[in-house]
């Protein structure tokens, strides 16, 4: 019943070997080796080669490995997919997705590369990055456009540009779009991932932003600096009271299954499917966070 | 050269031409001192109240310095120091030769001494550390009559007090001094803070010359080194370059890897059993260690727990912790930034201590033996936990023995923090190139890729386990590093010995061989 957590997705420039080697040290749930914005146009080939080698040779522990590839309408898109699929990253994160067609096209391209590499279809998953007004408008359709899709991420910088607005600390300009992405992803049963917070020195601001994202329903947050990972995990860490209650729910559920009891109640409250699922999620996150108290860096 | 093997398996000489006999290292507290302290000549107090001489040259002449003698300096001006080069230039121009240079440490700015080394003005060196071109030449060539003798801060104080290292003339720079010889390092444009390292020289050198660029009305207060120990005073135009002496405030690292290591080290400290009310602490300045102070402060703020004294050198950050009540006092041999100098000048519980007070194993009490928690660095650590902080991965001297072995010998919890991979090299090796601190004095190694506890420290390992802190063997860390870096080839080196590494008790713990 437990599924992979995606609380923190740490961006690492695809052209920086030192940062790639150290990325797993910070234990993000996912590492995103970036071939898009972090890499200059004249370094795309070298970075792609480096990322392929990194995927083939380095031990990233339990981290999910994603590669952010260049958008469908760039000259790098096809080369990125051809080179990466045989190296078997867990996920390809496609930048600037605006329509279901972007995903369907990419899905088929990956499928073709999987066949050529002798991999089962669907080995490499997809994540759609929605970063424009058009993308947000189509979010619900994008979210159900491929069984390969495991998450949708939201990109605020390009989005504010596309609606001809500016980013503010309060983030009112993003509220609708963030909620639209959450609804689309949750309705499709996949993970919504919130946008990055670029001011790496503003820890209180980042913490507030993560809290807001969690409250809106995001499964996690894209991180641009390793220091942000522990803060995300801290915000998403359930309280000991929540864990205690969740464990009681799961125990009661397991007990009921064994005995074949129909209706379960814990502390006088009826327990149904969604409550069991929620309890499982809390326990999963608590386990991932570890029992010891962490130190944020 | 007759060699022997010491208690940690290192081959060391029993006799060295021009330096005499040596004993091999036999254990951390194996040496019992005998004899008396060195005594200095009795002088008459000048009737004029003025010891001022017009120049460095005049002070050299007045001191009676002759060929074959030993001169000393303190290293508090760090890489902004102008005094050492200034004095040696004058010595050379006077035709004096064959001098032993015995400063508390040397920096890359002292590479300007190389012509005087090659010409024989300086023929021997003893120091805590050396860097830059000077260090490179001294590791690759044999320009001196004898190997460099590396001493720890406590070991140097011990050698001076016992008369093993006899200083004929100490030239001690001060950012403020009066004409009668009182001096301090907290006033003036070249203020550097504590005069802790100079205090031993002032007390035991046969002749003491105070050199300042800031002559103040009598008495120069605070009196860090008193008039009773000073023979002559010289005023020069400029004694140091403030830009090289220190920065405004040592900044906390922003490197995420160092911060991560610091966070892990903080968890280890909390679980160690030594993070208790009144604990004493030495932070150091490097990478992760200052961040540990910050994290410990956060824990103290949460829990209400307060520390006792902070020892060693001081930075603005630990001074701030004193001012806010987290530490009860700072005992200071060396200020690392201007914020620390300001604190020393103004805060009543921030005081100077001499290198002997700090770390001398043969003084009647040294602070290093009563400290609870010490953060240590390493350029290399081997699977027997021996630590190198002197030579780099290329075998060239580039650091300093400093207080490393002194504090490691006496402190209750000795943590080494280091990135597991530095440059392209693993930090954990089979055998360190140079042993500065023996492995039995190291309790735990904290890296970004795992924590290893010295198997000698079973109780500590158990406490970490109970706290849920995962540890691995140091061999596992070595494997994790080598998986990324491969195994480095052995360094090509000759049999020639370019430096002797004294343990703090004066025995030889290792040698540095010439790099080919």
Task: Report what the structure shows.
The complex is a heterodimer of chains A (297) and B (516). Chain A is an alpha/beta fold and 297 residues long. Chain A is built from twelve helices and ten strands. In chain A, strand 1 (8-13), helix 1 (17-22) and strand 2 (30-34) form a beta-alpha-beta unit. The two termini of chain A are 32 Å apart. Chain B is of the alpha/beta class and 516 residues long. Helices cover 27% and strands 22% of the residues of chain B. Chain B is built from 15 helices and 29 strands. In chain B, a hairpin with a 5-residue loop joins strand 28 (493-502) and strand 29 (508-515). In chain B, helix 5 packs parallel to helix 6 (196-204), helix 8 packs across helix 9 (287-303) and helix 10 packs parallel to helix 11. In chain B, 57% of the residues are buried. The mean pLDDT of chain B is 95.
Outline of the structure:
The complex is a heterodimer of chains A (297) and B (516). Chain A has 297 residues and is α/β, with parallel strands linked by helices. Helices cover 47% and strands 16% of the residues of chain A.
